[in-house]
Amino acid sequence: MKKGIISVILLVTLLVTTVLAGCTSSAPSTPATSAAPTTQVAAPQTYELKFQAHMAFEAITTGANLDKFIEMVEQNTNGRVKITRYPNDSIVGQQQILDGVSTGTLDVAVTTPSHFMGSIPILAVDDGLPLSWDSNYEMEEILWDYGLEDLVRQEYAKRGVYLLTDYSAAPSFLAIHMKEPVQSLEDLKGKKIRGFGSYLDIIGKLGASPVSMALGEVYTALSSGALDGVFLATSWSGPNKIYEVAPNICSLQ
What we know:
It is built from 10 helices and 11 strands. By secondary structure, it is of the alpha/beta class. The longest helix is centred in the N-terminal third of the chain and has 13 residues, at 64-76. It is elongated and about 85 Å long.
């Protein structure tokens, strides 16, 4: 199994980025004089932002950490920026998140880069190519010390979206969760397995049939037999109850 240090990204519209940056600074005060006329000061403008993540509230990568982010934004803007978080897939589907932010349907979002590597090829690298890095330290070094995040941010900007940051999907492992036990590669031949990003190619090379599907549809697909397995981070199995319909974890080592 490969360690699940998939990059998860936090996106906002460029307009909102300006708002968030502006709300954290205070204008210099002008000393009052006795001769200054009395003027009415307008109340500071407030902003209500719609926020959606690609995973459920209970997921380890999109749970309490995102709630804390929302809380910190409100505190650091003195209540001028309020973020309402909506359940995954409630406003847009997982694979429509980038368009949702770009068009303003969403103001803020968290997603996995691999969903959009078809239109933004560098996201395949940002997501974490197979065997690319094996620890958080290595991931952070290539993103921040060697400039990968800056390159990715430039590509998002072309779509009217600002990348706030990448963060790790660890601690978890990436593995194939199967309905039936797997003893050898032969047991994967012809099996319909949901994957994502560059891992779809790997699933195909293992002899299985790769399927691209929104995670919210996987449980039903496994239950009905439309899928035989799913390639997924183990930490996401619990919140999505994958263990109920695909209890056999297949290591790729």
